[in-house]
Amino acid sequence: MQIHHFHKTKPLSKNLTDLILTEQLLNENKKLVNFVVLQLYEREGKVFEIKKHDFSEGVYNMHEYFVSLFHRQEFPEEMLSSELYWRCKRDIQENWKEYRERYRKKYL
């Protein structure tokens, strides 16, 4: 089976300190087989993970590092789909400021 890897990092803000990283793995039929959507924040030369959605280990899970540096919640009822990927991406695009501020208040 041939896997195609698509990886993209885009700014969420004009000052380029807030980023969204997306990664998709598609099979030869262009069907999604795995994904990661990650919010990053750069400050003073260090990069912090703020929130991550992914489908590692065959289960959709979410890491909210602004809640706890070790936060991981699994959602076994969610099936891998393009719709899930786009929902995760929209979550970060629409809420990144809130997530970043919660992280900054707690850890920086």
Helix content: 10-25%
- Spatial gap, N to C terminus: 44 Å
Strand content: 35-45%
Written as H for each helix and E for each strand, in order along the chain, the element string is EEEEEEH
Residue runs with pLDDT of under 50 for 5 or more positions? none
Gross morphology is: globular
Radius of gyration: 14 Å
Describe the structure.
This protein is an alpha+beta fold and 108 residues long. It has one helix at residues 82-107, and strands at 3-11, 18-27, 32-43, 46-54, 60-64, 73-75. Helix content is 24%, strand content 44%. Strands 1-2-3-4-5-6 form a six-stranded antiparallel sheet.
Give the topology, please.
Elements (H helix, E strand, L loop, with lengths): L2 E9 L6 E10 L4 E12 L2 E9 L5 E5 L8 E3 L6 H26 L1
Antiparallel strand pairs: 1-2, 2-3, 3-4, 4-5, 5-6
Brief overview:
The chain is an alpha+beta fold and 108 residues long. It contains one helix and six strands; from the N terminus they run ββββββα.
Observed structural traits:
24% helix; globular; 108 residues; alpha+beta
